[in-house]
Design brief:
Strand content of chain B: under 5%
Order of helices and strands of chain A: HHHHHHHHHHHHHHHHHHHHH
Number of strands of chain A: 0
Number of helices of chain A: 21
Largest sheet of chain A: none
Number of helices of chain B: 3
CATH topology of chain A: Sodium/glucose cotransporter
Structural class of chain B: mainly alpha
Largest sheet of chain B: 2 strands, antiparallel
Number of domains of chain A: 1
CATH class of chain A: Mainly Alpha
Number of domains of chain B: 1
Helix content of chain A: over 70%
Low-confidence stretches of chain A: 5-19
Number of strands of chain B: 2
Shape of chain B: elongated
Distance between the termini of chain A: 61 Å
Largest interface: A-B, 59 and 47 residues
Mean pLDDT of chain B: 89
CATH architecture of chain A: Up-down Bundle
Oligomer: heterodimer
Strand content of chain A: under 5%
Radius of gyration of chain A: 23 Å
């Protein structure tokens, strides 16, 4: 009813144009220009101060923290990936990631995020690696973590750029290389001027845009099917197996997926956002609202994916990344609406890319440049070096995006699995006095090696061999479980065993990090 | 560093989080294709309720089990980094 009403009103008030017109691109161009203008106007406060550029002077309030943390966490994975995965595997995808993340993400924000915020503020840390170096009194650990974290962020960036390309290609037939280039340049433009505050402000705007647009897409697409009941009835008639989990997702797989959301505890870009908080209380809104926000984004996307399968819509080239774009393109004939939806999807993607770009510049500046050279560079020079590193990483990621993976969802899960396998490290660092540097180093090495072996066997080797990955087929499992369970267990066991076998940390360090308020 | 013993409402709030984490594994819906409201599969609907429950549980944890002294600790900063 509402859908029909909205469609009628919009169709009556907005001019109709044939599909593949330039109108959607004009809408997107207007959105990107407005975003740039907004960000540049807000970036003036950032000039000259590294503290402002990297952690927004630790002054971000509750609403902005919620929007920036949520916007950063939700990327192409949440919109493009969830729709495509639901198209392949059915409604069980929601339980795999969305409801699990509602519990686990907030748990991590509460138990780890707030502690790290306090430690960061007390000792004036800016990056994860600074914290780990100090906590374990180990330069080697910091040196080891730098390539591991950067190496895991790059596929995360890739997910965004590839997802954006798939969407714009599906709706407006723009080559994926061009979309990737434009997205990278726009995000670079506003974060190079404003740093983490610009990213947080842009995230807030973009998060509101993509949530609103997601709801609008759901209403309009369901309306185009003749209502939600008809859309689901198509699935009942044609693909009933997608309405349950039997045969699509195993019990062990479902349970072991619970490890994947633990990744938020080790995302370097999220660590940086946590440090921007004005106070511990700033986290309250994020902890409470995060599960609801996930639901608002994921539930419609999962239903759209299932409806697409039920309606017999074929994924272009067997690529389920393109299902959402195809649904928007096929079902919504109004190019203005298509443009708006495209802008919303790009907003979700850019709201992750920006934080990741800033974070990479930050860890390079602090963990490599400042750590190695001390006070040789001025604050302004450090910011410039950070910017140059960001440009280099974006260029590398852009080149990699020209060889896109078959499935955004699966690449994202691999990336998250790598971060999740490092989660025992951060938990031990903030809660376990007995953990040692040797245990931490061994755990990082074991996590990295198990990830690399399983990633090669599960995704890289099949892709190089010409199999189109896992899209639409069976997921790669180890003993029936997600690979992350094995990585996590290996990392956690190594951490505990090696710590107990090596000399305890110095009393100075224990007192420094585990003291009580005076 | 957070200090203080947790109140009974705080413990109950945490218990609710644990219960939700267990309920998240809704094996009884595994092969159930019943539609709720005529269009939402029950397996999806239940998981949406878990999401809503999570928000309520976290609101209770924030209200009753907040680490009250953590800001004091953070403010005693010595900028040793």
């Amino acid at each position: 009813m509402i859908a029909e009403l909205l469609s009628t009103v919009l169709d009556a008030t907005l001019p109709q144009k044939p599909p593949k017109s330039s109108t959607p691109l004009i809408v997107v161009a207007i959105y990107l220009a407005a975003l740039l203008l907004f960000s540049i106007l807000n970036s003036r406060r950032a000039r000259g101060s590294a503290g402002e550029y990297f952690v927004a002077s630790r002054s971000i309030g509750p609403f902005l923290l919620l929007m920036s943390v949520f916007g950063t966490t939700m990327t192409a994975f949440a919109l493009v990936g969830s729709t495509g995965k639901a198209y392949d595997k059915g409604i069980g995808v929601y339980g795999l990631m969305a409801s699990a993340s509602g519990i686990i993400h907030s748990l991590v924000f509460f138990l780890v995020g707030i502690k790290l915020w306090a430690i960061g503020k007390r000792f004036n840390f800016v990056t994860q690696i600074q914290f780990f170096r100090a906590r374990f009194e180990s330069n080697l650990l910091g040196t080891l973590l730098f390539p591991v974290l950067v190496g895991l962020v790059i596929p995360y960036l890739l997910i965004g750029i590839v997802g954006a390309g798939a969407v714009v290609k599906g709706i407006a037939d723009v080559p994926t290389w061009l979309t990737g280039l434009v997205i990278c340049l726009v995000v670079l433009a506003y974060i190079l001027t404003g740093g983490v505050r610009a990213a947080a402000l842009a995230n807030a705007v973009q998060t509101m845009v993509f949530m609103a647009v997601g709801v609008l897409a759901f209403v309009l697409i369901s309306g185009s099917f003749g209502g939600v009941e008809t859309a689901t009835q198509n699935v009942v008639d044609n693909r009933p197996e997608l309405l349950a989990r039997e045969g699509e997702i195993s019990h062990a797989q479902f349970l072991s997926y619970m490890f994947v959301p633990l990744s938020v505890g080790m995302f370097p870009h999220l660590f940086q956002h946590w440090l921007t908080a004005r106070s511990a209380k700033t986290f309250r809104m994020t902890v409470i609202a995060h599960p609801l926000f996930i639901m608002i984004v994921w539930a419609p996307c999962v239903l759209i994916g299932v409806w697409a399968a039920g309606a017999g819509i074929e994924a272009p080239g067997g690529n389920s990344n393109a299902v959402l774009a195809k649904m928007v393109g096929m079902q919504l004939k109004n190019p203005w609406i298509s443009g708006l939806l495209m802008a919303g999807i790009l907003a979700a993607i850019m709201s992750s890319l920006d934080s990741q770009f800033v974070c990479l510049g930050t860890i390079f500046t602090h963990d490599i440049v400042v750590h190695r050279t001390g006070d040789r560079f001025s604050e302004a020079q450090r910011v410039t070096l950070g910017r140059l590193f960001i440009v280099a990483i974006v260029a590398l990621t852009y080149v990699l995006s020209l060889f896109p993976p078959p499935n955004v969802f699966d690449l994202a899960v691999w990336c998250f699995s790598g971060f999740a396998s490092l989660f025992p490290l951060v938990v031990a660092a903030v809660y376990w006095r007995r953990v040692t540097a040797a245990g931490a180093i061994a755990a990082v090495i074991v996590a990295g090696v198990t990830w690399a072996i399983l990633f090669y066997d599960g995704l890289l080797q099949p892709t190089l061999a010409g199999h189109s990955g896992e899209a639409g087929g069976e997921d790669y499992l180890v003993f029936g479980m997600m690979p992350v369970a094995v990585m996590f267990a290996a990392s956690a066991t190594t951490l505990v065993v090696v710590s107990l076998l090596t000399r305890p940390p110095s009393q100075t360090v224990v007192e420094r990090f585990f003291s009580r308020p005076a | 560093m957070t200090g203080g013993k947790m109140s009974i409402p705080g413990r109950l709030a945490w218990l609710l989080v644990v219960v939700l984490a267990i309920l998240h594994y809704d094996f009884w819906n595994w092969n159930d294709r019943t539609l709720v409201f005529g269009f939402v599969p029950v397996g999806l609907w239940f998981q949406v309720l878990v999401s809503i429950g999570a928000a309520i549980a976290w609101a209770l944890v924030v209200r009753f089990a907040w680490p009250t002294r953590i800001e004091e600790w953070a403010d005693e900063g010595d900028s040793e980094a």
